[in-house]
């Protein structure tokens, strides 16, 4: 899986990528093509480099060097097509030659600045020969033309062209000049072709630097922390936040309440009332896990991560009209995918929100019980399952969202203010009963009183 895939499937990842202040097309391409790392060693190496850049940004002198690199990255155009043309051996156009020259000038300039930074960062390839070929006059100007210095014949023809009057002779001379220019372009193309790998490496590394600087800036401005990486199957967060939800609440003048949680192989069954933050918890866990395995610092005060092969999220209304599936049908298909993956022996973080909630309670409860039992049977699986169903009697760890706090209610209360009355923190519980807060919340929100009274009557029965 690559980051571009998870942008489409996990809410919150797209927001994360949009928050990155990338400066170049190469940086964006590098971001989208990031592979999901599953090796603890590889993740640590990625985080080490990010921490190096972050430390540089906290140092006044080194920050100046980072800023100089950023200025040059802003000048980097989308030159992948021109680099590919160099590989092909075809005659390069003036536009291609200009793009390659500009890339080489930027790369050599960044390489010079890079000498001021820690040597642990990957070094750019030497493109001095490319610059020498495309900048024969040594002016270091980011433009290109077929210079007179490339050909004595071309230089003489151009002098003649400038000194004769308009007419057939001048037109014929122009054709001759064009033919000689093409010879020069073919020669330059042959000279540059062996440099194709170095040009590709330089473009990719410049994109990587762009992404690395953007990651560091995001971590610095948002107070993200470096996660520890373990191989013991432990996932733990203190004060975990969901960046997108936090930003939305901030626009309303509200605060996001962070959640602390520790997970280990097995199933954690989470109960809580509607609007108690169970879905946000699962999305937060998914986003943080993926961020760590794509080499980001995390929105928490402390984090300990176990890399998994797959992060499987089953959440929300999964109705797919294009496939002719109801929300229940689409949910069952997704659960089947998760079960196949788990049974295949892969290490999986499975995050499942209120499975079978749209079917009848008797069968729904049976499906949840069977699901928890199946996930528990595979030791490499870490799963969080939320539910409204009581009497799920399968042995597993149980957590409860503390939920509604009556003392915090200040009427009248708008629906967007309800979160101020809910304690989203988790507590261990040994009961399978679920909270009964739905009618009280509906009452506080001003739902039609007769409906509330009739509902209470049936609860009392």
Describe the structure.
With 461 residues, the protein is α/β, with parallel strands linked by helices. It folds into 2 domains: 1-213, MutS, DNA mismatch repair protein, Chain A, domain 3 (Orthogonal Bundle); 226-455, P-loop containing nucleotide triphosphate hydrolases (Rossmann fold, 3-Layer(aba) Sandwich), CATH 3.40.50. The chain is 50% helix and 12% strand. The strands form 2 sheets. Strands 6-7-8-4-9-10 form a 6-stranded mixed beta sheet, with helices on both faces. A 4-stranded mixed beta sheet has the order 1-5-2-3.
CATH class assignment of the largest domain: Alpha Beta
Instruction: Give the CA-CA distance, first to last residue.
Output: 52 Å
Strand order of the largest sheet: 6-7-8-4-9-10
> Into which percentage range does the β-strand content fall?
5-15%
SSE run: HHHHHHHHHHHEEHEEHEEHEHEEEHH
In DSSP terms (H or I, runs of 4 or more residues), the helix count works out at: 17
The low-pLDDT segments are 318-322
> What overall form do the CA principal axes indicate?
elongated
Task: Give average pLDDT, whole number.
Answer: 91
What's the structural domain tally? 2
Rg from alpha-carbon coordinates:
30 Å
Biggest sheet, in brief? 6 strands, mixed
CATH superfamily of the largest domain: P-loop containing nucleotide triphosphate hydrolases
If you consult CATH, what is the topology of the largest domain? Rossmann fold
The CATH architecture name of the largest domain reads 3-Layer(aba) Sandwich
Structural class: alpha/beta
Number of strand segments: 10
Q: Percent range for helical residues?
A: 40-55%
Organism: Porphyromonas crevioricanis JCM 15906
GO molecular function: ATP binding; ATP-dependent DNA damage sensor activity; mismatched DNA binding
Domain DNA mismatch repair proteins mutS family: 265-460
Keywords: ATP-binding, DNA-binding, Nucleotide-binding
């Amino acid at each position: 899986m690559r980051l571009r895939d998870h942008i489409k499937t996990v809410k919150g990842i797209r927001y994360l990528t949009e928050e990155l202040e990338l400066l170049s097309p190469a940086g964006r391409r590098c971001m989208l093509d990031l592979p999901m790392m599953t090796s603890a060693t590889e993740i640590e190496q990625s985080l080490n480099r990010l921490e190096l850049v972050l430390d540089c940004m906290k140092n006044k002198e080194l920050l100046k060097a980072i800023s100089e690199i950023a200025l040059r990255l802003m000048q980097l155009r989308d030159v992948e097509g021109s680099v590919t043309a160099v590989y092909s051996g075809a005659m390069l156009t003036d536009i291609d030659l200009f793009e390659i020259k500009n890339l080489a000038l930027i790369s050599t300039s960044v390489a010079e600045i890079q000498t001021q930074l820690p040597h642990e960062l990957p070094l750019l390839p030497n493109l001095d020969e490319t610059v020498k070929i495309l900048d024969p006059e040594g002016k270091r100007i980011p433009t290109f033309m077929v210079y007179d210095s490339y050909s004595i014949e071309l230089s003489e023809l151009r002098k003649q062209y400038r000194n004769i009057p308009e007419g057939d002779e001048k037109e014929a001379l122009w054709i001759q000049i064009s033919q000689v220019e093409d010879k020069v372009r073919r020669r330059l193309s042959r000279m540059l072709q062996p440099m194709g790998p170095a040009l590709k490496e330089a473009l990719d590394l410049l994109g990587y630097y762009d992404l690395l600087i953007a990651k560091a800036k995001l971590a610095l401005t948002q107070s993200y922390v470096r996660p520890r990486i373990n191989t013991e199957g432990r996932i733990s967060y203190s004060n975990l936040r969901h960046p997108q939800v936090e930003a939305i609440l901030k626009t309303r003048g509200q605060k996001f309440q962070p959640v602390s949680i520790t997970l280990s192989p097995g199933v954690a069954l989470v109960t809580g009332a509607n609007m108690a933050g169970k879905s946000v918890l699962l999305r937060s866990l998914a986003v943080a896990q993926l961020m760590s395995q794509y080499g980001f610092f995390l929105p928490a005060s402390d984090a300990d991560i176990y890399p998994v092969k797959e992060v499987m999220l089953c959440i929300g209304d999964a109705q797919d009209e294009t496939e002719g599936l109801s929300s229940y049908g689409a949910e069952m298909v997704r659960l089947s995918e998760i079960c196949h993956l788990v049974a295949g022996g892969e290490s999986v973080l499975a995050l499942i929100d209120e499975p079978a909630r749209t079917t009848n309670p008797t069968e729904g409860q049976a499906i949840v019980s069977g699901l928890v039992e199946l996930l528990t049977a595979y030791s490499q699986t870490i799963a969080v399952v939320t539910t409204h169903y009581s009497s799920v009697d399968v042995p597993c760890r149980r957590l409860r969202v503390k939920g509604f706090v009556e003392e915090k209610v200040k009427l009248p209360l708008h629906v967007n203010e309800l979160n101020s009355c809910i304690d989203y923190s988790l507590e261990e519980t040994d009961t399978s009963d679920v909270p009964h807060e739905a009618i009280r919340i509906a009452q506080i929100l001003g739902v039609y009183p007769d409906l509330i009274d009739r509902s209470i009557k049936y609860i009392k029965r």
